[in-house]
Write a structure and sequence with these properties.
It holds the Pfam family CPT. It is a single chain. This protein has 192 residues and is of the alpha/beta class. Helices cover 48% and strands 14% of the residues. It is built from nine helices and five strands, in the order βαβαααβαβααβαα. It has a five-stranded parallel β-sheet, with helices on both faces. It is globular and about 50 Å long. The protein binds adenosine-5'-triphosphate.
Length: 192
Amino acid sequence: MSLPQVIILNGTSSSGKTSIAKALQELLPQQYLNFSIDSILYALPETDLQLMKQGKTITRAGYDWPSLVRGYHYCLPALLQAGCHLLIDNAWCDRNEKRELLTELAGYSVALIGVQCDIEVAQAREQARGDRAIGLVEWQAPIVHQDMTYDLDIDTTSIEPQALAIKLCDQIRHQAMWRGAVETLEHLNIYN
Ligand SMILES: Nc1ncnc2c1ncn2[C@@H]1O[C@H](COP(=O)(O)OP(=O)(O)OP(=O)(O)O)[C@@H](O)[C@H]1O
């Protein structure tokens, strides 16, 4: 059974996407690159990155959030064309961003995975980790799963990332059809 060229994990900040992605990378029988908007943001000047982590305004000339998001989206098909497989994690809160990235990935096999987590548990993780602006989870929770048709869902509330990754890896290896990304894009194009 062939593996999807792209695996997308979508859920709120602190739902555990990166933890699962890192564990899944080690388990999958094919090399996947883990990409997220963080892959771009970690290229920002250090002081701008620190301001962003604290939820503060960046005033440096040239800073433009939409350009960073577009840059992230546009580099993904380039990696796919080069032959790489991608494991992407997103906290998708903007319909246009969802539509833009799914359009860029059209034609590739994409597994769309919903990462669910009890909001209070995610907020507790947000407090504990100290490297995310407080309030991100509360803001994202009502919107992150809107408009999405997932191929698979996982719930990180009370299960460790390694156990979740083992189960997810098995499901990905045995699933024959990936329709979530196509159906989500169709929905976004019709209703927005
Ligand atoms: N299943 C889990 N059980 C307990 N703690 C977890 C679990 N998954 C992640 N965590 C913890 O929650 C915090 C955030 O995890 P992680 O970075 O994986 O989340 P994320 O969804 O990628 O967040 P972000 O979108 O902000 O990057 C970390 O401190 C991590 O150790």
